[in-house]
Amino acid sequence: MDRPATCLFCDIVAGRVPAEVVWGSEHVVGFLDHRPVFKGHVLLVPRLHVVTLPDLPARLRDPFLDAGQRLAAAMVDGLGAQGSFVAVNNTVSQSVPHLHLHVVPRTKGDGLRGFFWPRTRYADGEQEAYAARLRAALDGGPDPAGEG
To answer: Residue 41 pLDDT > 70, yes or no?
Structure first.
């Protein structure tokens, strides 16, 4: 995917914008969020400019997930957290249009109540219809990363 004229995360990756980098590899960079949910909150981004998770090329999936696992473990080992919250937004609620994985240290009683997701119920027959639509998209749809 072509990089836009300005992308904050591309500028951080290139060193044009300062950030507190905690992890870097050939394919990904992890840095502290400047407005953390909790101190130690890391944003993991691919060096390649991609906007959403479905845009991530297959060759970058393992390096991206591997780094996410390492960061989740570091929340416990390095910060003494009891666990972590790991999340990706795709388009909606994505403040910077560059794929980023949030890795947030968590401790029981830290005050984070998760997401306030409204819950709903399926009407009769509706659950099967939604499942069928998703199966059809998964069976016949294009590869989300465009690689076959």
So the answer is: yes
